[in-house]
Write a structure and sequence with these properties.
Elements (H helix, E strand, L loop, with lengths): L5 H16 L6 H8 L3 H7 L3 H13 L5 H4 L5 H18 L7 H8 L5 H27 L9 H22 L3 H14 L2
Helix pairs in contact: 1-2, 1-4, 4-8, 6-8, 7-8, 8-9, 9-10
Length: 190
């Protein structure tokens, strides 16, 4: 198997650094050091730190296991739960330190960089739309109250998840995650 391209190494290092440290705490030197390349190599592939952050957001979406939402062998609400169970395991397994890259960038950079804000919004919108689709599917199957506003509920669930991640990082425990599952799956979507 061939060696990854320099761009790939830099992009992957940027993703890991941004996810672990945040946007403001990550410098180009941190990225190039993690990639094992000279600083000049960064600018051969990315025009700026912001450009590499946009690439990191794209890579992050690939880690969210959206495929769990579309698996046809399970009912929609089971797929929804499996998606958040996967994300919660990742949070717990990583010691409550990384959170959601989209949410992190939204909180840290959105007020200062329109391009990153727009990319984060696009990420959240796409995620909420996937959740909405599952809720509609559950309604059509008779597994969820048809009067529930699927669009508002999807946005609420995603917002609750983002808050859960912040609370879990602050608390350094799974208590907020447990509360999310009890509230969303045992009450709201019951």
């Amino acid at each position: 198997m061939g060696r990854a391209s320099k761009r790939e190494e830099i992009a992957e290092a940027a993703f890991r650094q941004f996810h672990a440290r945040g946007f403001n705490a990550t410098g180009i030197n941190d990225i190039t050091k993690a990639a094992g390349v000279p600083k000049g190599s960064f600018y051969n592939h990315f025009s700026s730190k912001e450009d590499s952050a946009l690439e990191a957001l794209s890579r992050y979406a690939d880690t969210l296991r959206f495929d769990l939402l579309t698996s046809p062998d399970r009912p929609p609400l089971e797929r929804l739960r499996a998606h958040f169970e996967y994300l919660s395991r990742d949070t717990v397994d990583n010691g409550f330190v990384r959170g959601c890259l989209v949410g992190n960038f939204g909180a840290e950079v959105a007020d200062h960089n329109e391009e990153i804000r727009s990319a984060a919004k696009q990420g959240f919108d796409g995620w909420a739309d996937r959740l909405r689709g599952l809720l509609v599917e559950a309604q059509e199957a008779g597994d969820l109250d048809g009067s529930l506003d699927a669009e508002a509920t999807a946005l609420f669930i995603l917002s609750a998840w983002e808050g859960t991640l912040i609370a879990a990082r602050v608390d350094k425990s799974s208590a907020p995650v447990d509360a999310f599952f009890r509230t969303v799956f045992d009450r709201l979507l019951r």
